[in-house]
Amino acid sequence: MSLTLRNLIVALGLSIAMCAMPLPAAEPAKAASAGPKKGDVPPALLGKDRKGDLVDLAQYRGKVVVVSFWASWCGPCLKELPQLDLLQKHAGDKLLKVIAVNVEDSNDDYRMMMRQMKGFTITMTRDRDGKIAAGYDIRAYPNLWIIGLDGKIAANHRGYGEDSLERIIDDINRVLREQAALAPSAIAG
User: Fold this and answer.
1) For position 186, what pLDDT does the model report?
2) Cα–Cα distance measured from residue 21 to residue 18, given in angstroms and rounded to the nearest whole number
3) What are the residues whose beta carbons fall under 8 Å from the beta carbon of 50, sequence distance 6 or more?
4) Which of 114, 147, 140, 95 has its CA nearest to residue 48?
5) Count of domains in the chain?
6) 184 within a domain of the structure (yes/no)
7) Pairing mode, strands 64-70 and 96-103
8) Whole-number pLDDT of residue 80
């Protein structure tokens, strides 16, 4: 297949109409960013999946991992999640893993969202108390992290808008190309 991920995403009609969505006003102001930066190994634990299994980034080493933090009240997040699911379905699990971390929704809201996303193939986890999000210094939604096959942060997009779609696609493509270039040596090694 000669389709690049960009062509695949464009062909799928990926139009994430995002806008900066700050956390609710009740969130206390923080000093300088304490979250991970590009090149850092991010916090590994991302909560429990729908089956109750702990999701650890270490289990996906050797794949590109896209982690999106979201909440049910974030309209742009709800537009992004189906597109990430399409991306996962079309890219498959060999090179890419998409994990969506729900942050601090009530039990009722979370259960309702899980019913609505029943057929999704992306891994859905839950951060009930916001501690996982705090480890990533999440201050705005949507918040997307691209983690390379080496387990280090390759890119981060915080509170992005529709005008950032091209850059996000470029980042995912870049990291996937790096993965593909290293895959033969990883298989042989």
Assistant:
1) 47
2) 9
3) 114, 124
4) 114
5) 1
6) yes
7) parallel
8) 86
Classify residue 62: in a domain, yes or no: yes
How many angstroms from the chain centroid is the CA of residue 179? 17
Rounded distance between C-alpha atoms, residue 161 and residue 174, angstroms: 20
Token digits for 60? Answer: 């996906």
pLDDT recorded at residue 163: 66
pTM: 0.79
Q: Coil, helix or strand for 46?
A: strand
- Check residue 37 and give its pLDDT: 95
Measured distance CA(181)–CA(87) in Å, rounded:
20
- List, for the chain, all residue ranges whose pLDDT scores fall below the cut of 70: 1-33, 161-163, 165, 183-189
CATH of the domain at 180: 3.40.30.10
- Output the DSSP codes for 71-93: -TT-HHHHHHHHHHHHHHHHH-T
In a domain? residue 16: no
Residue 6 lies in a domain: no
Helices (H), 55-155: 75-91, 107-116, 131-135
- Sheet containing strand 45-48, edge to edge, reads 54-56, 45-48, 123-127, 96-103, 64-70, 143-147, 153-158
Q: In terms of residue numbers, what domain contains 94?
A: 43-188
Expressed in angstroms, the distance from the first to the final Cα of the chain is: 25
